[in-house]
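Morning run. Coffee first, then this:
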Amino acid sequence: MKLIPSTIRDRKATMMKGGVVVVTLMLIFGVGASASDTAPAAKDSATPPAKKAKAHHWYQIGEASWYGPHFQGRTTANGEPFNMYALTCAHRSLPLGSWIRVTNLRNHKSIFVRVNDRGPVPEDRVVDLSYAAARAVGIHGLGKVKLEPVRGGDPKLARELLAQLQIPVMPNAHTGE
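And here it is:
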């Protein structure tokens, strides 16, 4: 039996607990590997090594609009009531429940939103943002935006999403901030 000094043993236990917390948070927020991520190729000794294929990340650029009071409380495509103060959006084809980063290309402000509805109805628009999401990126009518999905293979986007989930979005009613 090998004896490990208590200082080393305690440090290893603390590091292990921290890793468990990170993995748990990643699983809770769905930041694990997704079906759209490419799997690493199996090594075959008979074939020569090929150049690594560059990963192409999906994004979409186009006009965004927002919707609010008229739709408040109506049922969205995923069955939940629409809340104009939630960070959500409507997109024609992205999976319901997925998270995307919306960046206003005019002022470079960005916010993460969850897809919970289908739309927008006008064909010249790519996304309909909730009132709160549009306000967060500075869109008051229409605005040109870039959409990027949050995927398990992109730890930078995942960290930014987790950081956003820890900051208050709504102004404090008591202080007016």
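The CA atoms of residues 37 and 153 lie 7 Å apart. Good start to the day.
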